[in-house]
Design goal:
2 helices; 7 strands; single chain; alpha+beta
Length: about 110
């Protein structure tokens, strides 16, 4: 598997989920940088959901469909997780720089 890059969207296996965690095989945005992704056995991700909840920023940010991301999806910023790279399955798409900045801004607002 090639090294995941920050801002890319990959298909990730979130099972088994516990409690209110998001589960199943779903797209996720890679937030950890390439250097960390080369060295560590884990990646930091934000899962995507096809359930769109408008005007819920900073908790969610809508990502339009593109490349192999077949449906418009909400980035569930409040569901950020660190996962084993063994859960990362295949590349789907990449965010624009502006979209990545919005995801990061949402995360910063959540942890203030």
């Amino acid at each position: 598997m090639r090294v995941c890059r920050r801002g890319e969207i990959w298909l990730v296996d979130f099972n088994p989920a516990k409690g209110g965690e998001m589960g199943k095989l779903r797209p996720a945005i890679i937030l950890s940088d390439e250097q960390s992704n080369e060295i560590l056995d884990t990646v930091i991700v934000v899962p995507l959901s096809t359930v769109i909840e408008p005007e819920t920023f900073p908790f969610r940010w809508t990502v339009p469909k593109r490349e192999r991301l077949e449906k418009e999806s909400d980035a569930c910023i409040n569901e950020i997780r660190s996962l084993s790279k063994k859960r990362v399955k295949e590349y789907l798409a990449v965010l624009t720089e502006e979209e990545l900045v919005m995801i990061q801004e949402g995360l910063c607002r959540l942890i203030r």
